[in-house]
Specification:
Length: about 70
């Protein structure tokens, strides 16, 4: 849970990094030679899951913050 503006900025930066990592992952399927397709799928799902978690935390913080204004 994000508790302050500093954590919010850090979380937003981390979410952006995961978003870029996911885009790069999808843009370069040939970057995984010799890796079993199930492992590639699991890695993509892990990145997606982490990104969704961070985005949910950001939305919750923004929702709470908007109610305090």
């Amino acid at each position: 849970m994000i508790r302050n503006a500093r954590q919010y900025r850090i979380t937003k930066a981390q979410a952006e990094k995961f978003k870029r990592a996911l885009e790069e992952f999808d843009d370069r399927p040939s970057a995984h030679p010799g890796v079993h397709p199930k492992l590639i799928k699991a890695q993509r799902e892990a990145i997606t899951s982490q990104l969704e978690s961070l985005q949910q935390e950001i939305k919750e913080y923004e929702r709470l913050w908007s109610h305090t204004l």
